[in-house]
């Protein structure tokens, strides 16, 4: 059966910390008719009203199982990290909050997030998580600060009708095959391959030759190994004429570019599946794992964790909430809503995501994905890469020159 799955991720987007019950006052235990009850606060974002409703239902299940704990949910709809920092600096920080892997290294470095290793027991079964997703929330010493609540990876979307018309029976499994297929499918109206030219999509390819986009917290993407790894993407447009990016197809995102059938293939995330099914039900498509690069499988993973405020005065109750939400029971309840992918292998198996023809490629990728997380300066590195890579992709300048300039500007900002 086809499941509707989307990603709970913040948009591809702390110093002093206090705790609050949402009214600006330090949280205190409250007494109810059922006896003494501890109130803790949980802060996150809302991707949709439906997602918010499922979160509230999952929290209600936790409260039913833990009647001595009351959870107050505070939602930040926009500019999540900026608003959260302001609240934390003002002594109004939550006990538990969402933390995106992209932001994790910088926040962990400040010391404001509670280490979780001492809370985790053998019964919690940490080994059940896909390890790249857990490792995204460790520091350089291996200390764990967050537990991933859900995830998404990238996979290859392909138009089955276009494949059939061209006599192509299967999705490509290597990058050379992808280029051959794109050449066969290229036409005046359709790009053989659609490219979303940003680092969040391309990082795993950029590092496929052994280079790194960042070293010692500074940009390093002008490394010849990185340039050589990305050059084939640029050449697909400028030398072979078989690739384009969304704005060239009159759209502003890869999902719509594929939905409008302006490209025969594109690498996108599992959030594209419900988008297509709800808005473009006539598009006949399939999903496959991303073709190998240099004989190695690769993809990106985006994940968000629950973390505990190091300054919380209610750590035992806060841990019980995190333990439930990322435990097998709580995660199955949350991800069975069909809005997210589990980060526990056992939950993916119990919900049959791994065997689903559309979602199986995304689940498979979690075990070998490059997590969108690198170091404390990744936001600066990301912005400068994107500014210059697009110009190279559009043929406006040499890739090596573009990335060298982007690297220099990024490192000047970092310094």
UniProtKB/TrEMBL annotation:
<keyword id="KW-0762">Sugar transport</keyword>
<keyword id="KW-0813">Transport</keyword>
<keyword id="KW-0732">Signal</keyword>
<protein>
    <submittedName>
        <fullName>Multiple sugar transport system substrate-binding protein</fullName>
    </submittedName>
</protein>
<dbReference type="Pfam" id="PF01547">
    <property type="entry name" value="SBP_bac_1"/>
</dbReference>
<feature type="signal peptide">
    <location>
        <begin position="1"/>
        <end position="22"/>
    </location>
</feature>
<comment type="similarity">
    <text>Belongs to the bacterial solute-binding protein 1 family.</text>
</comment>
<dbReference type="InterPro" id="IPR006059">
    <property type="entry name" value="SBP"/>
</dbReference>
């Amino acid at each position: 059966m086809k499941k509707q799955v989307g990603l709970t991720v913040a948009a591809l987007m702390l110093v002093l910390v206090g705790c609050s019950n949402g009214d600006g006052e330090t949280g205190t235990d409250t007494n109810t008719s059922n006896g003494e009850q501890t109130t803790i606060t949980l802060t996150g974002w809302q991707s949709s009203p439906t997602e918010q409703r499922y979160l509230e239902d999952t929290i209600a299940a936790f409260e039913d199982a833990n009647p001595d704990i009351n959870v107050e949910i505070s939602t930040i709809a926009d500019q999540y990290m900026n608003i959260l920092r302001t609240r934390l600096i003002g002594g109004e920080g939550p006990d538990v909050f969402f933390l995106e892997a992209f932001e994790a290294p910088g926040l962990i470095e400040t010391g404001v997030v509670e280490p979780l290793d001492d809370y985790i027991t053998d019964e919690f079964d940490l080994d059940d998580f896909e390890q790249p997703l857990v490792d995204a929330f460790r520091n350089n010493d291996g200390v764990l600060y967050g537990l991933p609540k859900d995830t998404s990876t990238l996979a290859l979307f392909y138009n089955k009708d276009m494949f059939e018309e061209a006599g192509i029976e299967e999705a490509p499994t290597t990058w050379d095959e992808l280029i051959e297929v794109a050449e066969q499918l290229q036409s005046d109206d359709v790009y053989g391959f659609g490219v979303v030219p940003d680092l969040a999509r391309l990082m795993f390819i950029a590092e496929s030759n052994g280079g790194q986009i960042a070293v010692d917290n500074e940009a390093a993407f002008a490394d010849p190994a990185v340039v050589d790894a990305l050059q084939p993407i640029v050449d697909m447009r400028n030398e072979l004429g078989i690739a384009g990016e969304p704005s060239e197809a009159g759209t502003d995102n890869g999902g719509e570019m594929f939905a409008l059938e302006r490209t025969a293939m594109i690498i996108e995330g599992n959030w594209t599946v419900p988008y297509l099914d709800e808005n473009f039900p006539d598009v006949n498509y399939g999903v496959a794992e991303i073709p190998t690069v240099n004989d190695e499988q690769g993809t990106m993973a985006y994940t968000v964790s629950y973390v505990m405020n190091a300054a919380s005065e209610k750590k035992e109750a806060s841990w019980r909430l995190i333990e439930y939400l990322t435990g097998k029971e709580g995660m199955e309840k949350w991800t069975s809503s069909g809005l997210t992918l589990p980060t526990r292998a056992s939950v993916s198996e119990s919900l049959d995501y791994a065997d689903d023809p559309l979602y199986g490629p995304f689940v498979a990728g979690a075990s070998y994905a490059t997590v969108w997380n690198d170091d404390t300066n990744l936001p600066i590195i990301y912005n400068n890469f994107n500014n210059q890579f697009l110009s190279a992709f559009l043929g406006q300048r040499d890739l090596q020159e573009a990335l060298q300039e982007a690297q220099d500007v990024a490192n000047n900002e970092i310094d």
